[in-house]
Amino acid sequence: xxxxxxxxxxxxxxxxxxxxDLASLDLRRGPLPTVLDTDMVxxxxxxQLKNGRxxxxxxxxxxxxxxxxxxxxxxxxxxxxxxxxxxxLGVPEADLRRFLNQDWLPYTAVVRLPQALRQSDPRAxxxxxxxxxxxxxxxxxxxxxxCLLLTGNYxxxxxxxxxxxxxxxxxxxxxxxxxxxxxxxxxxxxxxxxPARAAAGTMKWATGRxxxxxxxxxxxVLVGGGIYWYCKQQPEHRERIRKTAGQIGTHLxxxxxxxxxxxxxxxRLQLRACMVPQPEHKTPTAAILRELALSPESLSAxxxxxxxxxxxxxxxxxLRAFLRTHDNTVFQQVRRGGFVLGSxxxxx
Length: 348
What we know:
Blueprint: H1 9-18, E1 32-36, H2 38-51, H3 56-62, E2 66-71, H4 72-89, H5 93-104, E3 108-111, H6 115-118, H7 122-130, H8 135-144, E4 148-150, H9 167-190, H10 194-210, H11 212-231, H12 235-274, H13 284-294, H14 301-307, H15 316-325, E5 331-335, E6 338-341
Parallel strand pairs: 1-2, 1-4, 2-3
Antiparallel strand pairs: 5-6
Helix pairs in contact: 1-12, 2-4, 4-5, 7-8, 9-12, 10-11
């Protein structure tokens, strides 16, 4: 969009209404769930060796914008393939292991799904028919959907909406763009208060440097000079100055706001296109896992029940039993009665 094509506020409101179903709503609740597949780990390690820093997906997780998850068997597969990755990349295996343990795994929750949970989404079962090694990642992504799936294997994961090798990375970039755009919008909305804050800050500095009375005298001279110049103008000139100043301020702030808002909207559309869509029929199990994936802190069974759709909410007794049955595999109890999704591992 060119700089001259500025959308009206009504057009912006219509765009946001149209995008009401976007998964960006989850960004306000917590980091976006993102599932790692083995081949993307290999690609990311290659990037880290070449650039001296982790890939964008890991850095975005470190910043707390997305939350990385990996199925336990995918992690086992990754560990088994490290010697091959090391040979392909021409580095010691210990270097890759160190990258994973220091930069990746502290920000990756590992979920150990039992077979019954893996088989709950027919999309994951279809991936299994294409490649059994991809089944664990597919099952986890299906349960957490809508989510991002970081994989370059669009042939095997096509049933989950993966169409290109870069789709997951493009989704991470869209998440980053949404956050930057929303910060820009907040900055524009804050600008009207800046002059008063700046003036107060300047007076505080001047008072400390030259003393209170003298600082106010200097300020009075500067402000008075501006007022004197304004008052010396002809009445029609003063009115023109006042209107022009107001129009310039409104125009600049409006353009900046609309540019930032349009960028956020386009990034949200990009994010939706990159995500694994939610299942046609969501199960209580999938709802439980996704709520925990979105939560920034551990949840008790009662807290979790309060977040679940009533149509998918089990009894509190059944929910407690489900969480305790899968403790230290699917979930981890990090405080008495408080659970998170997944655990943290380190490669030996």
